[in-house]
Amino acid sequence: MTDTATKEDPRPAGGDRRRGLLRELPVLLLVAFLVALLLKTFVVQAFYIPSESMERTLLVGDRVLVNKVVYHLHPPRRGDIVVFSEPHGEAIHRNPVQGFLHWLTEGLGASTSPDKDYIKRVIGLPGETVEVHMGRVLINGRQLREDYPGLTIGTGGVDYGPTRIPAGNLFVLGDNRAHSCDSRCSLGFIPEDKVVGRAFVILWPPSRFGFLHR
User: Fold this and answer.
1) Which of 135, 141, 138, 120 is nearest to 188 (CA)?
2) What is the pLDDT of residue 153?
3) Is 186 in the active site?
Protein backbone atom coordinates (compact mmCIF):
# COMPACT_ATOMS: atom_id res chain seq x y z
CA MET A 1 0.00 0.00 0.00
CA THR A 2 1.46 3.34 -1.07
CA ASP A 3 1.26 6.33 1.25
CA THR A 4 0.17 9.55 -0.47
CA ALA A 5 0.87 13.01 0.93
CA THR A 6 -1.82 15.64 0.80
CA LYS A 7 -0.58 18.87 -0.80
CA GLU A 8 -1.58 21.92 1.26
CA ASP A 9 -2.83 25.08 -0.46
CA PRO A 10 -0.20 27.78 0.26
CA ARG A 11 -2.72 30.57 -0.25
CA PRO A 12 -4.27 31.90 2.94
CA ALA A 13 -7.96 31.44 3.34
CA GLY A 14 -10.20 34.36 2.50
CA GLY A 15 -10.98 34.95 6.17
CA ASP A 16 -7.27 35.13 7.02
CA ARG A 17 -6.68 37.71 4.30
CA ARG A 18 -9.51 39.85 5.59
CA ARG A 19 -8.27 39.65 9.15
CA GLY A 20 -4.77 40.61 7.98
CA LEU A 21 -6.15 43.61 6.14
CA LEU A 22 -8.16 44.70 9.16
CA ARG A 23 -5.03 44.49 11.31
CA GLU A 24 -3.06 46.62 8.83
CA LEU A 25 -5.82 49.15 8.17
CA PRO A 26 -5.29 51.28 11.33
CA VAL A 27 -1.58 51.55 10.53
CA LEU A 28 -2.28 52.55 6.92
CA LEU A 29 -4.82 55.15 8.03
CA LEU A 30 -2.37 56.56 10.59
CA VAL A 31 0.38 56.82 7.97
CA ALA A 32 -1.98 58.51 5.49
CA PHE A 33 -3.12 60.94 8.19
CA LEU A 34 0.44 61.85 9.18
CA VAL A 35 1.46 62.36 5.53
CA ALA A 36 -1.55 64.65 4.97
CA LEU A 37 -0.75 66.57 8.16
CA LEU A 38 2.88 67.05 7.17
CA LEU A 39 1.88 68.20 3.68
CA LYS A 40 -0.55 70.73 5.14
CA THR A 41 2.04 72.00 7.60
CA PHE A 42 5.04 72.29 5.33
CA VAL A 43 4.01 72.07 1.67
CA VAL A 44 0.51 73.23 0.72
CA GLN A 45 -2.54 74.44 2.61
CA ALA A 46 -6.04 75.64 1.76
CA PHE A 47 -7.22 79.09 2.88
CA TYR A 48 -10.67 80.69 2.89
CA ILE A 49 -11.23 84.22 1.50
CA PRO A 50 -13.21 86.14 4.16
CA SER A 51 -13.43 89.66 2.71
CA GLU A 52 -13.86 91.66 -0.49
CA SER A 53 -10.38 93.20 -0.41
CA MET A 54 -9.11 91.05 -3.30
CA GLU A 55 -12.19 91.31 -5.54
CA ARG A 56 -12.48 90.72 -8.47
CA THR A 57 -9.45 88.42 -8.41
CA LEU A 58 -10.72 86.54 -5.36
CA LEU A 59 -14.30 86.57 -4.13
CA VAL A 60 -15.66 86.09 -0.63
CA GLY A 61 -16.01 82.36 -0.03
CA ASP A 62 -13.30 81.30 -2.48
CA ARG A 63 -10.81 78.75 -1.24
CA VAL A 64 -7.26 78.92 -2.50
CA LEU A 65 -4.28 76.62 -2.22
CA VAL A 66 -1.08 78.16 -0.87
CA ASN A 67 2.41 76.94 -1.70
CA LYS A 68 4.39 77.01 1.56
CA VAL A 69 7.69 75.88 0.03
CA VAL A 70 8.29 78.44 -2.71
CA TYR A 71 9.72 81.19 -0.49
CA HIS A 72 12.34 78.83 0.86
CA LEU A 73 13.66 78.82 -2.72
CA HIS A 74 13.42 82.54 -3.51
CA PRO A 75 12.03 85.70 -1.86
CA PRO A 76 8.53 87.02 -2.59
CA ARG A 77 8.21 88.74 -5.96
CA ARG A 78 6.19 91.71 -7.10
CA GLY A 79 2.72 90.63 -8.16
CA ASP A 80 2.61 87.49 -6.01
CA ILE A 81 -0.61 86.93 -4.08
CA VAL A 82 0.55 85.99 -0.60
CA VAL A 83 -0.98 84.77 2.63
CA PHE A 84 0.60 86.16 5.77
CA SER A 85 -0.10 86.14 9.49
CA GLU A 86 -0.86 89.20 11.62
CA PRO A 87 2.29 91.34 11.17
CA HIS A 88 2.03 92.91 14.62
CA GLY A 89 1.05 89.79 16.55
CA GLU A 90 3.09 88.94 19.62
CA ALA A 91 5.20 85.80 19.54
CA ILE A 92 3.78 82.93 21.59
CA HIS A 93 6.32 80.79 23.38
CA ARG A 94 5.47 77.11 23.89
CA ASN A 95 7.45 74.25 25.33
CA PRO A 96 8.04 71.25 23.03
CA VAL A 97 4.95 69.36 24.25
CA GLN A 98 2.68 72.41 23.88
CA GLY A 99 4.18 73.13 20.47
CA PHE A 100 3.48 69.58 19.25
CA LEU A 101 -0.10 69.61 20.56
CA HIS A 102 -0.74 73.00 18.95
CA TRP A 103 0.67 71.77 15.63
CA LEU A 104 -1.46 68.63 15.82
CA THR A 105 -4.76 70.31 16.75
CA GLU A 106 -4.26 73.12 14.24
CA GLY A 107 -3.55 70.59 11.50
CA LEU A 108 -6.71 68.72 12.45
CA GLY A 109 -8.72 71.93 12.33
CA ALA A 110 -9.60 71.59 16.02
CA SER A 111 -7.99 74.93 16.82
CA THR A 112 -6.98 78.03 14.92
CA SER A 113 -3.93 80.19 15.17
CA PRO A 114 -4.29 83.23 17.46
CA ASP A 115 -2.86 85.25 14.60
CA LYS A 116 -5.31 86.16 11.86
CA ASP A 117 -4.27 85.29 8.31
CA TYR A 118 -4.50 87.85 5.49
CA ILE A 119 -4.22 87.62 1.72
CA LYS A 120 -2.95 90.51 -0.43
CA ARG A 121 -0.77 91.18 -3.45
CA VAL A 122 2.93 92.06 -3.15
CA ILE A 123 3.47 95.53 -4.65
CA GLY A 124 6.63 96.97 -3.11
CA LEU A 125 9.89 95.18 -2.31
CA PRO A 126 12.54 95.89 0.35
CA GLY A 127 14.46 99.13 -0.23
CA GLU A 128 11.99 100.60 -2.74
CA THR A 129 10.15 103.88 -2.28
CA VAL A 130 6.41 103.49 -2.73
CA GLU A 131 3.51 105.91 -3.00
CA VAL A 132 -0.15 105.47 -3.88
CA HIS A 133 -2.46 108.14 -5.30
CA MET A 134 -6.08 107.43 -6.22
CA GLY A 135 -5.26 103.73 -6.28
CA ARG A 136 -2.33 104.14 -8.67
CA VAL A 137 1.11 103.01 -7.50
CA LEU A 138 4.48 104.67 -8.00
CA ILE A 139 7.67 102.75 -7.30
CA ASN A 140 10.80 104.89 -6.98
CA GLY A 141 8.87 107.75 -8.59
CA ARG A 142 7.67 105.80 -11.65
CA GLN A 143 4.14 104.55 -12.13
CA LEU A 144 3.89 100.80 -11.77
CA ARG A 145 2.32 99.00 -14.70
CA GLU A 146 -0.38 96.76 -13.29
CA ASP A 147 -2.38 94.51 -15.57
CA TYR A 148 -3.79 91.99 -13.11
CA PRO A 149 -7.11 90.84 -14.63
CA GLY A 150 -9.09 91.39 -11.43
CA LEU A 151 -7.65 94.76 -10.39
CA THR A 152 -10.27 97.34 -9.39
CA ILE A 153 -8.83 100.84 -8.95
CA GLY A 154 -12.02 102.83 -8.33
CA THR A 155 -12.01 106.42 -7.20
CA GLY A 156 -11.68 105.93 -3.44
CA GLY A 157 -9.04 104.39 -1.27
CA VAL A 158 -6.25 105.82 0.81
CA ASP A 159 -3.37 107.85 -0.60
CA TYR A 160 0.02 106.95 0.79
CA GLY A 161 3.66 107.98 0.86
CA PRO A 162 6.19 108.36 -0.54
CA THR A 163 7.76 105.99 1.99
CA ARG A 164 10.81 103.75 1.79
CA ILE A 165 10.18 100.05 2.51
CA PRO A 166 12.54 98.77 5.22
CA ALA A 167 14.83 95.82 4.58
CA GLY A 168 13.14 92.47 5.12
CA ASN A 169 9.66 93.91 4.60
CA LEU A 170 7.01 94.02 1.86
CA PHE A 171 4.37 96.54 0.84
CA VAL A 172 1.07 94.82 -0.01
CA LEU A 173 -2.24 95.99 -1.45
CA GLY A 174 -5.62 94.42 -2.11
CA ASP A 175 -6.76 94.25 -5.73
CA ASN A 176 -9.96 96.01 -4.66
CA ARG A 177 -8.03 99.21 -3.95
CA ALA A 178 -10.98 101.29 -2.70
CA HIS A 179 -12.08 98.64 -0.17
CA SER A 180 -8.91 97.12 1.22
CA CYS A 181 -7.15 97.53 4.54
CA ASP A 182 -3.55 96.86 3.59
CA SER A 183 -0.07 98.37 3.93
CA ARG A 184 -1.57 101.84 3.50
CA CYS A 185 -3.53 101.35 6.72
CA SER A 186 -3.13 99.47 9.98
CA LEU A 187 -1.28 96.49 8.52
CA GLY A 188 1.74 98.56 7.58
CA PHE A 189 4.78 96.80 6.16
CA ILE A 190 4.76 93.00 6.22
CA PRO A 191 7.88 91.29 7.55
CA GLU A 192 8.94 88.58 5.14
CA ASP A 193 9.08 86.04 7.98
CA LYS A 194 5.33 86.52 8.47
CA VAL A 195 4.56 85.31 4.94
CA VAL A 196 2.99 81.84 4.97
CA GLY A 197 3.22 81.24 1.23
CA ARG A 198 1.98 82.11 -2.26
CA ALA A 199 -1.60 81.47 -3.37
CA PHE A 200 -1.45 79.72 -6.73
CA VAL A 201 -4.87 78.26 -7.51
CA ILE A 202 -8.55 78.83 -6.74
CA LEU A 203 -9.72 75.42 -5.59
CA TRP A 204 -13.35 76.16 -4.69
CA PRO A 205 -16.02 76.68 -5.89
CA PRO A 206 -15.52 74.43 -8.94
CA SER A 207 -17.01 77.08 -11.23
CA ARG A 208 -14.10 79.40 -10.35
CA PHE A 209 -11.29 76.85 -10.47
CA GLY A 210 -8.19 78.37 -12.02
CA PHE A 211 -4.56 79.28 -11.50
CA LEU A 212 -3.50 82.64 -10.07
CA HIS A 213 -0.78 84.38 -12.05
CA ARG A 214 1.61 87.18 -11.15
Assistant:
1) 120
2) 80
3) no
Say which CATH number the domain at 106 has.
2.10.109.10
Identify whether 194 is a catalytic site residue: no
Q: What is the pLDDT of residue 112?
A: 42
**Exactly one of 7, 40, 51, 53 is catalytic; which is it?**
53
Residue 1 lies in a domain: no
**Which residue among 120, 180, 183, 194 is the active-site one?**
120
Per-residue model confidence (pLDDT) at position 107: 47
Element (H, E) at 136: strand 136-139
**Position 16 in a domain:** no
Exposure letters 55-87 (e unless 16+ CB within 10 A, then b):
bebbeeebebbbbbebbeeeebebebbbbbbeb
CA distance 159 to 89: 25
Domain with 66 in it: 43-88+95-211
pLDDT along the chain (214 residues), means of 10: 52 61 70 62 81 93 92 95 84 50 48 67 97 91 90 76 96 92 93 95 93 83
Question: What does the pLDDT read at residue 61?
Answer: 92
CA gap 60, 148 in Å, rounded:
18
